[in-house]
Amino acid sequence: MSVAKPPAAQGYRIGEAAARSGVTAANIRYYEREALIAPQARGDNSYRLYTDADVHRLRFIRLCRAMDMSLDEVRTLLGLDLRRKADCDAACVALDAHLGHVRERLRELRSLEKDLIALRDCCDGTDAHCHIIETLHARADRQPLAGAPRTRAARHV
To answer: Residue 130's Cα: distance from chain center in Å?
Structure first.
């Protein structure tokens, strides 16, 4: 027995809204809890029903998240009106702040890349043991234990 889809005028069930937006049903529920989309009306069968506007909003959220924006950054952009000059300025400020976060992350990634290259250069595979693994174990031994009190010996490592 096949189940008929509700007409678009009534709305889409969460699975169809997920398929149309590219956002998983679990993320749709999460975005509702985070107030990025309004809680949806329920049909006679108690299923959530999403409109074309909801699907568009979900696509907008997905696009912003793909650009690594935080939920707060997405929430800020969703609250802006594209027809107001002041909101255009606020969008620029939000994107400039996000760009700052991206640039900081790039600096961190470049540092990580250098560290990984140096680690990789520790070993050419010709010795009896692996200097990469040896170096990683030595680094692990130098890491302080989380929550453990620092001892005199640990301070001098």
So the answer is: 36
